Write the structure tokens for this entry.
Amino acid sequence: MLAAIDWHVVWKQLFHPDGVFARALWTTVYMAVIAQVLGVVLGLIAALMRTSKVWGLRWLSGIYVWLFRGTPVLVQIVFIYYSNLIIPGFHPIPNTLNLGLFKVDGAVFAGILALGINEGAYMREIIRAGIDAIDKGQMEAARSLGMTYRLAMRRVVLPQAARVIVPPLGNEFNNMLKTTSLVTIIAVHEMFQDAEIRYSQDFKPIEYFGSVAIWYLLLTTVWTFIQAWIERRLAVSERGEEVPFWERVVEAWTPVQAWARGAR
């Protein structure tokens, strides 16, 4: 079976990729980063709405999570991409988004928006859990010192909650790097679609899709080390010393252990 594989194609895709693949790789990376940042922002807003005393805000936050966690992300991508057809004359997804220094294709914008909104629903639960893990006495003490709720949340609660939030947040970004492959359904030229196009030309699926799998593995591995470094900088072990770097790497690959450490 291995003899039937065209190793020249695999070698070229891994070690001598052309400019077209390089752009597809770059699209995968920047879409994942922007979508994750958008997801964190939306998740934070939704989590704060969840803790609000205003019933309407709590209800909206719950509906948001219910809707976007309860439907497939692939369906959300397609729905948002074709949202221009919902209301006549209203076009939330432009054909090209002009940002001055560079332009973003409308399909890429729709993909980022869909992935970010979907991620926000999951991040709300992660951030909510982080906030709930902080003793309520912290907020009461901050309020007794004259801090407003917003100031206490920003300076007291959220910095402590970050220790609980960071491990699952890192795992969410790891997943986001791979989820970007779904935007191929709306013709975004990222790594997976690049492999599809090349495969359709010379019918070598194992070589092209196998090479893409290795590239995804490389991206997630690099992120695992970055995540371990971030956690090592933010967290301190119960013994009062930094958790060893390699232990953080292992935890990054085992989310349950990472969450358990952060929750303690």
